[in-house]
Amino acid sequence: MEEGLIRNTPDLKEACAALVAGGVAALDTEFVWRATFRPHLAIVQMAGADGVCRALDCQLGTDPSPFAAVLSDPAVVKVLHAAHQDLELLHHYASVVPVNVFDTQLAAGFCGHSANVGLQKLLYEVLDVGLPKTETCTDWSRRPLTDAQVRYALDDVRYLVALRAALLAQCDAFGTREWLEEDLQKLELPEAYGEIEPEEAWKRIRNASRHLRPQGLAGLRAVAAVREVRAREWNLPRAWLGEDGSLVALAERLQRGETSFPNVRFRHRLRNNAQRDHLAADYADALAEAARLPEGEWPLPVQPDYPSEVRDAADRAHDYLVARGEELHVDPAVFANRAQLLAFVDDPEAPENPLAEGWRFETVGRTIIERFYVP
What we know:
The protein is α/β, with parallel strands linked by helices. It is 50% helix and 9% strand.
């Protein structure tokens, strides 16, 4: 089978058989996200140990089951760069949880590179390969795709197998491979691909805690849950049903002491009058219900207002992580983000903090407790 587009199920079966035979599948996706709840998957690029690159056209109704078998095969390593969004798309397309995943961006952070490095830069740094960026504005949903578009898309998987091998060699040299493998296992957790609970959607709204106290957060939780449910039901982007700032403004009404919401106005992009009226009523009902909640049921801020001594200690702990990262050839961002570091300095026994377990605790967490913990 030649390099190029896969347009039917028999060709997909043949391509997937080659991936299984070689034990490795380099993967990437191209998608369009305009007017739907989730991105619209247009093509899936794949390359195997034989070096042949192919792209599955996902708009032709091809049976995804051969590809699903590859994703779920523990004997086939799936190599992606900045894997999270691609894995979510592939999970929804193929209805399986990917296993044995290798993220080259994550791996880069364990061998002296930035943990947020782009593929183009990483390929140049590690393999001295330069990728052209000629189709960055392509509408991947339009057909037919040109040969130039297909070549551009395939270049994103062409070198991933070699890149993985080179990064693993660097990790072996620095003694970080075991730590990397511990983190890679988290990409196989089924909960990473589950839908967010509507009642938890408010936690994704950035900086809400700066504007809202717990009572206002109760209102935000209520309207964010409405937006999440309706966006899924109507298959529309969340922002079309109200920008984050609009939801915060609605919650501020509750915080100001309002208990009745007859005229809910918010910034949205809905053109369907019935949906608009329905949503406004839903928001009003949700706010009214939140207004009746007792104080004990108000949510706490996602980002607590830490005292200055904790923030100062976290600053010093961050400096330690930078120095320790240089020593270990690990990007400090791999250890923890700012919020996780603050929480750990404040309470090392808080659940689900990455610094409290595994290789992170052994390499930096224990020392942070000894030097920077603020009782």
